[in-house]
Write a structure and sequence with these properties.
The protein has one helix and 15 strands; from the N terminus they run αβββββββββββββββ. The chain is mainly beta. The protein has a single domain, classed as Jelly Rolls (Sandwich), CATH 2.60.120. The strands form three sheets. It has a six-stranded antiparallel sheet, with no helix packed on it. Strands 1, 3, 6, 11 and 14 form a five-stranded antiparallel sheet that branches. The N and C termini lie far apart (50 Å). 40% of the residues are buried.
Amino acid sequence: MKSFLLFLCCFALFDLAMLAQTGQPRIVHSKEQSAIHVPPQEAPACLERIYSNLGKSKTDLYETEIGWGIFGPNSSSGFTEFVGMPFTPKSNAQVEQVRAALWYFGSGANQVNLSIYADAGGPATLLVGPVTVTNLPPSGTCCALAVAKFSPLAVTCGTRYWVVADTPLTGIGSDSEATWAFIPTHIPQAFNDGSGWSLDNGLTEEAAGEVLGVRDDSVSWRCR
């Protein structure tokens, strides 16, 4: 068993090293840790889904063995990668929470920062955050979600925004290695290798997550 685990570790590191040479977004592969899937944390009853790409089944929200890598600038991987998930509200709303399918990859601080950015061909102006989310579940599990709570952020119907997962550039958390699990899709996504944000329109996998809040035309916000 020890030899097998060592092989898996070396395989993962080799995979990341090869991807780093390509200059392309890094895909992280993880062995599924358990065939038993658990439901995610319950969302507050007063909040509505402003955006979600998660699966319909609470025990099958996202893929369990693959995702985009999130690597702090001081991580053992030797490179930096941050990931942005786009969302476009279908009504004016107040965003209060983001729930993302983030895993801990097993090296560095077990934490990731979540923020929301305005769009300008990719994440641009920071609107709210960062919120540091700690104690991420291990890679290859399902279906816990990393939860970030924000002060209410007004978003506009039909306008694209970005949920960004990144790390501090220095200090605690800058060595973090994490994974943002996939769901199959085909929409633009944003990546930052430390030199700036870029879009990739040809991807067939999307970072999995949801944005919660209250619509401006809803009265449910009054129960907060």
